[in-house]
């Protein structure tokens, strides 16, 4: 089974394998964040909390990179082939928001 979404009237399919890989990354990041919550609740050392928060940020950034690469490899290639400048503009906007 695959996930389908649209860009400017064109449809693109994401594989279940790609989706599962992203969901696994999100689950790991959520696990790190839950650990941070537990550390704060148990008055863990602030330095250790900050290290764990860094792991959360890294996990989320790496997940974003995977999604971005997949989007470029599939959706944006298709958009270029179909001269879909709206999809390109949407990618620019998404990158601006992701990199803030």
Layout: helices, strands, pairs:
Elements: E1 3-7, E2 10-14, H1 16-41, H2 46-81, H3 85-99
Antiparallel strand pairs: 1-2
Helix pairs in contact: 1-2, 2-3
In summary, what is this structure?
The protein has a two-stranded antiparallel ribbon. The protein has one domain (13-99): Methane Monooxygenase Hydroxylase, Chain G, domain 1 (Up-down Bundle), CATH 1.20.58.1000. It is built from three helices and two strands; from the N terminus they run ββααα.
CATH topological fold name: Methane Monooxygenase Hydroxylase, Chain G, domain 1
Could you say which overall geometry the principal axes of the C-alpha atoms support? elongated
Q: Structural class of the secondary structure composition?
A: mainly alpha
CATH evolutionary superfamily = Metal-sensitive repressor, helix protomer
Largest beta sheet, briefly? 2 strands, antiparallel
Count of discrete structural domains: 1
The percent range for helix content is over 70%
Number of β-strand runs = 2
Task: Give the low-pLDDT segments.
Answer: none
End-to-end separation: 34 Å
| Rg for CA atoms | 17 Å
Average pLDDT reading:
87
Q: What is the H/E order?
A: EEHHH
The CATH class: Mainly Alpha
Number of helices: 3
Report the β-strand fraction as a percent range: 5-15%
Q: Which strand order does the major sheet show?
A: 1-2
CATH architecture tag: Up-down Bundle
């Amino acid at each position: 089974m695959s996930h389908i979404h649209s860009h400017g009237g064109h449809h693109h399919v994401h594989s279940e394998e790609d989706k599962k890989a992203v969901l696994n990354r999100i689950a790991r990041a959520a696990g790190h964040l839950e650990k941070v919550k537990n550390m704060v609740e148990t008055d863990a050392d602030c330095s250790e909390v900050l290290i764990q928060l860094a792991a959360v940020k890294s996990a989320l950034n790496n997940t974003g990179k995977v999604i971005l690469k997949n989007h470029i490899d599939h959706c944006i290639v298709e958009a270029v082939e179909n001269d879909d400048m709206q999809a390109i503009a949407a990618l620019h906007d998404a990158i601006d928001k992701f990199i803030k």
